[in-house]
Amino acid sequence: MPEPGSLVAVGMSGGVDSTLTALLLKERGCRVVGVTMSSWMGDFSLPPSPEGVRSSCYGPDEAIDIAQCQELCRQQGLEHHVIDVRDAYHRHVLDYFTGEYRCGRTPNPCVNCNRTIKFGALLDGIRAKGIDFDYFCTGHYAALVRPRDDVRLVYEQLAVSGGSGQCAVESAVRPVMISAATDRRKDQTYFLCRVPSATLEQVRFPLSAYTKQEVFQMARERGLAAANRGESQDFIPDSYLDIIFSDQPSRPGDIVDLAGKKLGVHRGIQYYTIGQRRGLGVSSNRPLYVHSIDAASNRVVLCDDEDLLCSGLVATDWVWAGDYAPEVAFKAQVKIRLASPAVMSTIQPLEDGSYRIMFDEPQRAVAPGQAAVVYYNGIIFGGGIISREIR
Question: CA-CA distance, 366 to 187, in Å (whole number)?
Answer without folding.
Answer: 21
